[in-house]
């Protein structure tokens, strides 16, 4: 099944309640700022890791849908979950997460293509030639299944050792293919999905140290030679023994200065109360201070399902109550008010335009795409309205977050709010016709 047909069938399978769920979540977001909407107002995304097995829990999905604009499958896209035997792929659990995210206008980060851990046993038995082929086939098969649907991929994960040496980690890929396996993986990933952002992801690289410098030197080499790398992910797992480093922002900035985006990909901070809140504030402020820090992902929705649950490291406790750290993050994101209100970014003289195109059509529905273009001044965020003809309903949305008032859909950015003067971005949506083939009307675009 080709990618477009698969997406359409999945949009239908996501359930007849998808549009209603979008509406409910968006109306909740209108009542008070949320992490996702506040971050979008800063031109960033704010996401979370998601486990497919928890999507049946009402409080879990309600918190996810209300607060976050991006999701990362926690384990469902790793090699052992997607290709347990060579050449045989299974996507059921990962599809469940992607379907859920798309039906609610969330972006998806892919995690992860090549990693030394959570490998099926057959990978380690291969010789060098077979391993190289298997690695490229895995990248092609996994990325091909989701082509055009994943915002960023962690192409290679945790390939460097801890400690002061800056050496590569022993793994089947490193030991049999040598240093060049990372470059080969990135080139294979670019071929598999040219539109996706390609990231290197690691931990204990948050400050300037031997490990982060080894990664920095690799990225510098890649950018100088045209190896396709778009972003670097910083896992940012902090506790009292590994606190937020004083040079965290400086480290993010030096990578950004190489011409790549930086993303905080697996954030959690053990602790509680005001101390934990203060540390979360430091992280958010560091990201906001670096123009190319495009977003943040906390590694889980609730403390009770965290891999470090004993350290209560997340923004919601085990009962899904907002912790002081939640309030601190929302405040740091400017979440006390929307545009033009106290705490919001305010209205300026910046302008934007929005134009509509129907990109696909079938008997029961169609896909629409809106292109938002900044005027002669750069913008930090935008808002566009789409008025649907009577009877039509939206079943999926991507690259934006939506609020509904009757048949009027108001769309704000997820990760793609900030635009340079004259630059453009797009958001798309799937519509169920319900007997009406009329085109929607795109209203004025508002910039801030």
Quick structural gist:
This protein is an alpha/beta fold and 448 residues long. Helices cover 33% and strands 25% of the residues. It has helices at 3-13, 18-31, 35-41, 58-67, 79-82, 92-103, 121-124, 128-145, 172-177, 181-192, 210-225, 248-256, 273-289, 324-332; strands at 45-50, 70-73, 107-115, 152-157, 197-202, 231-234, 237-238, 261-269, 293-298, 352-362, 365-374, 382-387, 393-398, 401-405, 408-412, 424-432, 441-447.
Characterise this structure.
This protein has helices spanning 3-13, 18-31, 35-41, 58-67, 79-82, 92-103, 121-124, 128-145, 172-177, 181-192, 210-225, 248-256, 273-289, 324-332; strands at residues 45-50, 70-73, 107-115, 152-157, 197-202, 231-234, 237-238, 261-269, 293-298, 352-362, 365-374, 382-387, 393-398, 401-405, 408-412, 424-432, 441-447. The protein has 448 residues and is of the alpha/beta class. The chain has an 8-stranded parallel β-barrel with strand order 1-2-3-4-5-6-8-9, surrounded by 6 helices. Strands 10-11-16-13 form a 4-stranded antiparallel sheet. Strands 14-15-12-17 form a 4-stranded antiparallel sheet. Strand 8, helix 13 (273-289) and strand 9 form a beta-alpha-beta unit. Helix 12 (248-256) runs parallel beside helix 13 (273-289) and helix 13 packs parallel to helix 14. The longest helix has 18 residues, at 128-145. Mean pLDDT is 89; it is low at 9-32 and 337-348.
